[in-house]
Amino acid sequence: MKSIGFIGLGYVGLTSAICFSFKGYTCYGYDIDKEKIKKLKDGILPIYEKDLDKYFIQVYDKSFIPTDNLKELIENSKLIFITVGTPSREDGSINLQYVEEACKNIGECLKEIKNDYKVIIIKSTVIPGTTENLALPIIEKFGIKLGKDFGLVVNPEFLREGNAVYDTLNPDRIIIGYKEEKDGNILEEFYKEIYKENIPPILKTNFVNAELIKYANNAFLATKISFINMIANLCQTLKGADVEEIAKGIGLDKRIGKEFLKAGLGYGGSCFPKDLEALLSFAKKLNVELPLLEATIKINNNQYYKAIEMAKIELKNLKGRTISILGLSFKANTDDIRNAVSIKIVNELLKEGANIKVYDPKAMENFKKLFNDKNIYFAKNVEDCLESSECAIIVTEWEEFKRIKPETFLKLMKYPLVIDGRRIYQPNEFKDKLIFKAIGYNN
Ligand code: UGA
């Protein structure tokens, strides 16, 4: 079994297709966005993701086959991964339209194909019950039967943007949800072949558990972040307190662990905000309360404002003030600005009447598509962004920003107020040289 297909070439689909092509599989990749397919065929990656270009070069025009012909993909693939987006509706609930369409197209095509058992793998994040109650009936409507004519598996993805390649090649664990045992076994064998001696633990379970594991996973991680941000806000009011020390201290407890305890301006991205809202909305329909998640979301919704508060305490009125935003992407090593904290901060500063200068190593183009305001200046580099500024806010933890010295801020800025929204600087190096504020830090 050497040919597999990916329907949907977002971060998950594209990275997986390129990485598995690199591992020796022929990977077909389909997307409804024809422009994206064209770019890929021309050897251009449609997104920035760390290291993806290095792998793309090796599989381009060889084992990775972008196509706008879904039939070609389905006919040629033994495993068909559904990696389409599952965006939010207005009310926060999940929009499963693309999963539905993919299942319909697969069903339509599979009914024509005889004696070729293919396994469909739902990798997209779907609300519990989707595979059993939506995907399966849609496919079987075409007169084909699970276990006889096709296989179906839920296989959630845990890769992080910015580390997508590394995470795809080195997963912590693999979750396989199945109804027909042989389907689970087929996917397990595939992963064993991919990862060989580095195969991580595999948990095989049913559809609904596999679906809920993904949500519970993201909800737990988001809760960890909101927890430490809550403690950061407490630190802010205590003379001498520093949330970085607290995170270090509690992170040493093996039961807690040190990951995802980085206080900052809150989580963003295409996953946590959307998945938590979707889970909450789903539970509400079942009349189940999830108060811990409500609190996690509430803390996160307010967290970005801490940077504005700090600026206001120091500058009083922000009207007409020049404020530099360092970092636009929702995290480092990606150009993705979906649900990025930078958007909330810039909107708030616009409301306050500030003059805004922004800079990001990779996300400028995406940000320009969102904002076309005369009060926003798109800087060429860090220096250009800091020049004549009265307040610099670190919004994304890019390596490039970590290297900026206090002397550089001092030299370029008109008023040397630095707000470290991602805790990338050592307060001791900064606090005596300029006006230094940081999340969870009280000097
Ligand atoms: C997240 C999960 O980490 C992945 O396991 C999952 O596969 C993915 O969602 C998904 O559901 O597709 P991702 O959103 O790419 O991945 O990025 P994270 O590294 O989790 O960061 C999310 C947000 O939390 C970022 O805005 C980041 O700045 C913030 N964060 C993260 C913190 O504020 N503090 C931390 O300690 C960690």
Named at the architecture level, the CATH assignment of the largest domain is: 3-Layer(aba) Sandwich
The overall pLDDT, averaged over residues, is 96
Q: Which small-molecule species are bound to the chains here?
A: uridine-5'-diphosphate-glucuronic acid
Helix content class = 40-55%
Individual helix count: 19
Q: What distance separates the N and C termini?
A: 61 Å
Major beta sheet, strand line-up: 3-2-1-4-5-6-7-8
Descriptive report:
With 443 residues, the chain is α/β, with parallel strands linked by helices. It is elongated. It has helices spanning 11-22, 34-41, 52-59, 70-76, 97-110, 130-140, 164-169, 181-195, 207-235, 243-251, 272-285, 291-303, 305-315, 341-352, 364-370, 382-386, 399-402, 406-412, 427-430, and strands at 3-7, 26-30, 64-67, 79-82, 118-122, 150-154, 174-178, 202-205, 322-326, 355-359, 376-378, 391-394, 417-420, 435-438. It has 2 domains: 3-205, Rossmann fold (3-Layer(aba) Sandwich); 219-438, Rossmann fold (3-Layer(aba) Sandwich). Helix 15 links the parallel strand 10 and strand 11. The protein has an 8-stranded mixed beta sheet with strand order 3-2-1-4-5-6-7-8, sandwiched between helices. A 6-stranded parallel beta sheet has the order 11-10-9-12-13-14. 44% of the residues lie in helices and 14% in strands. Residues 125, 157-161, 218, 221, 225, 260-262, 264, 267-269, 271-272, 330-331 line the site of uridine-5'-diphosphate-glucuronic acid.
